[in-house]
Write a sequence for this structure.
């Protein structure tokens, strides 16, 4: 009588090759070197982009967000399969789309850097989960991911509002931006899966479990180490600042107490709102209007034509018509935006910063800007 050893079926391979964690770990380390500041910035002159252009802006914004990409990669790896991963990521998409659209249309703004802290912590959250295995209750895990999406959408909204899109152009550009965000996210997911499939061919199956553990430890380490530094840097930047207005990161603008002076007596209201280079600026009228709650913009007389066109359009089309602009009488090359109490100084014309600063001032004195 002969005996045959029982054949055990080979373990089924996950629909997501775990060997791809090598790729994710490498990407995490490379992107960490790039620094958190590059995560969610949006280019400064995007306000004048076309509606299709905002799709590209959304794609670029997402693909430059290393913290968001690592969070999504962690979810895909944790899910272990395309169907479950799609369900969880869909909850994240619904969450950040909801608050992006709602907060933008309502004009809500938050501290975008602190939102970045939450997203970095979400990377640590996914990494910590993966260190101890997959979630037992996927419904609870998905609800938590949805919550992260809501927070992330608030940050996206604040960044979008910082672009300086005019109100009449807001809705379609907002929708295009949101589409770009989702296209960028889908592109990243496809890229992760493709890299994982390629790397899995070169890695032994027996090493896959250990590699999976390594990547989740790496995600937890990245998130837990970077988040405190982001938060500390933000608290330091707020200390001593006289304004809580959140300006775009790339604006080149700073808000401080007012130092610009105007004649204390005389003057009235101006005949027009924008004075071209070479025109005589009625500084007495500017001072009088400033006391009535107007905003005065002083710019150098050699301002570049493109910046001059942006400034002219912004001032002449602003609602309410509470902005005045003219050339400055000194050699200062900066653009100064002056209110009764504060002054924003910019290296050049940044429409997003102008819009945020002027809205904040007008709302503070009771105007609906």
């Amino acid at each position: 009588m002969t005996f045959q050893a029982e054949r055990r079926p080979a373990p089924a391979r996950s629909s997501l090759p775990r060997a791809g964690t090598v790729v994710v770990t490498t990407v995490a380390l490379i992107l960490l070197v790039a620094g958190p500041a590059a995560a969610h910035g949006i280019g400064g002159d995007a306000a004048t982009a076309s509606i299709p252009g905002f799709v590209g802006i959304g794609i670029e914004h997402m693909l430059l967000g290393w913290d968001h990409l690592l969070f999504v990669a962690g979810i895909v790896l944790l899910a272990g399969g395309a169907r479950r991963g799609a369900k969880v990521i869909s909850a994240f998409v619904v969450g950040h789309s909801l608050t992006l659209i709602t907060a933008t249309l309502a004009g809500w703004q938050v501290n975008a850097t602190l939102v970045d802290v939450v997203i970095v912590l979400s990377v640590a959250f996914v990494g910590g989960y993966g260190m101890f295995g997959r979630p037992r209750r996927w419904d609870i895990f998905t609800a938590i991911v949805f919550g992260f999406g809501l927070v992330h959408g608030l940050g996206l909204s604040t960044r979008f509002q910082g672009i300086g899109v005019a109100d009449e152009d807001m809705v379609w550009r907002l929708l295009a931006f949101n589409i770009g965000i989702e296209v960028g996210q889908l592109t990243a997911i496809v890229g992760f899966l493709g890299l994982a499939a390629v790397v899995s061919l070169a890695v032994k199956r027996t090493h896959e479990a250990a590699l999976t553990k390594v990547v989740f430890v790496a995600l937890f380490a990245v998130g837990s180490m970077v988040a405190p530094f982001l938060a500390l840097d933000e608290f330091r930047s707020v200390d001593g600042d006289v304004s809580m207005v959140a300006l775009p990161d790339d604006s080149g603008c700073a808000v401080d107490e007012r130092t610009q002076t105007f004649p204390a007596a005389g003057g009235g209201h101006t005949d027009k709102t924008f004075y071209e280079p070479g025109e005589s600026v009625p500084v007495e009228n500017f001072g009088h209007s400033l006391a009535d709650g107007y905003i005065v913009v002083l710019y150098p007389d050699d301002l570049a034509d493109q910046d001059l066109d942006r400034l002219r359009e912004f001032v002449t089309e602003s609602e309410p018509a509470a902005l005045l602009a003219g050339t400055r009488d000194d050699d200062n090359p900066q653009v100064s935006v002056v209110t009764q109490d504060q002054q924003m100084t910019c290296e050049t014309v940044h429409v997003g910063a102008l819009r945020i600063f002027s809205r904040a001032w007008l709302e503070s004195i009771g105007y609906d800007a």
The mean pLDDT is 78.
